[in-house]
Amino acid sequence: MGAVSQERVLRGGAASEPWGGVARVVGAGLLWGTTGTAQALAPPGTYPLGLGAARLIVGGGALLALAFRRGALSRPERRDWMRIALAAACMAAYQPLFFAGVGRAGVAVGTLVGLGSAPVVAGLLDGLRGRRWPGGRWTVATALAIVGCALLAGVAEGGGTTDPVGIALAIGAGAAYASYTVVNKEMVARYRPEALTAITFALAALLLSPALLTGPREWLVQARGVAVVLHLGLVATAAAYLLFVRGLASLPAPTATTLSLSEPVTAAVLGMVVLGERLTALSWVGALAVVAAIVVLARAEGSRADATHRT
Predict the structure, then answer these.
(1) Are residues 129 and 288 in contact, defined by beta-carbon separation less than 8 angstroms?
(2) Who contacts 295 (Cβ-Cβ below 8 Å, separation ≥6)?
(3) The pTM is what?
(4) For 94, left (φ over 0), alpha (ψ -120 to 50), or beta?
(5) How far apart, in whole angstroms, are the C-alpha atoms of residue 21 and residue 17?
(6) Confidence (pLDDT) at 76
(7) What are 233-283's pLDDT values in tens digits?
(8) Given CA atoms 239, 3, 69, 205 in this order, what sign does their dihedral have?
């Protein structure tokens, strides 16, 4: 995989279409929102590390095949290998943290708390790296999203007690996801999305693949287990992350992270409709707050695009 040529750099259309970026990131969040429900429907014997490893192996393999078919694979520049390795480590860490957090705290609570913490981490990481604060609209939108996630998490499943370990694991997953986003943002302008996601997820799959050798594997040969893994790998990983990386090319990392909070709203709805998790009227106020945050950011990106076009 040789140095990326000028023709293969992501630029132009992706960089000048923040509205398209908003739609792609929100769409990715909708696909990710099915992850917790898919885990809950997995057969007995499934465990977080094994499920995360199987998801990455299928998703990473599909992304590699797509990148190869499109002739997108090329050797990353030397300066980017460390960043790609770090992004892969973040993604490998995210899998067991997320599945374990959801398993202990519930689909709605685990997803909402995990992803609700991600925008704050992304904003802080951007600030620590010497960049300017994401801005007033991002602050308002992120505050709305966090309040919404807090309402959802606090009243989900009938307002019962939450598992503190599950909450901590979910927050760890959110931090890993935010770190992945910030690291990837530095490379999306230089690599085609299918190539970048393929290399990153293939490395992450290698990191987690030993987990399949250390736990029970009977669930992998059951029809329901195969269906869950295929859905997680092809839909909630390969398709979702391709959308996300394409959207990230035209959006700041903190903005993309906040927009992806369409995931916990989707997870909450699926948790209620499919799994019977109880969400009260107040929880719907929280969901509307998250949707309002997405609208605020979408309008902000649209205004930025209009201003750029006029310039």
Answers:
(1) no
(2) none
(3) 0.71
(4) alpha
(5) 6
(6) 77
(7) 999 999 998 898 888 887 877 778 777 777 777 877 787 777 776 666 777
(8) negative
Cα–Cα distance between 34 and 269 in angstroms, integer? 10
Dihedrals phi, psi of 21, to nearest 5 degrees: -60, -40
What stretches of 162-222 show up as alpha helix (H) in DSSP? 164-185, 193-208, 211-214
For residues 6 and 210, the answer to whether their CB atoms sit within 8 Å is no
Intra-chain end-to-end CA distance of the chain, in Å: 38
Residue 79 CB partners (closer than 8 Å, separation 6+): none
Q: Which helix (H) or strand (E) holds 264?
A: helix 262-273
The parts of the chain modelled with pLDDT lower than 50 are 1-16, 155-160, 305-311
Q: How many helices (H) and strands (E) does the chain have?
A: 14, 0
25 in Cβ contact with 256 (< 8 Å): yes
Q: Are 239 and 58 in contact (CB under 8 A)?
A: no
Tell me the C-alpha distance between 131 and 161, whole Å: 39
Q: CA-CA distance, 117 to 59, in Å (whole number)?
A: 25
Amino acid code (one letter) for 159:
G
For residues 254 and 102, the answer to whether their CB atoms sit within 8 Å is: no
Residue 161, Cβ density class (10 Å: 0-12 exposed, 13-18 middle, ≥19 buried): exposed
Q: In the structure encoding, which two tokens stand for residue 53, read together?
A: 């490893």
Report the pLDDT value the prediction gives residue 13, as an integer from 0 to 100.
41
- CA dist 102 and 268 (Å) reads 12
Cβ-based neighbour number of residue 220 at 10 Å: 17
Helix ranges, 18-47 (H): 18-32, 35-40
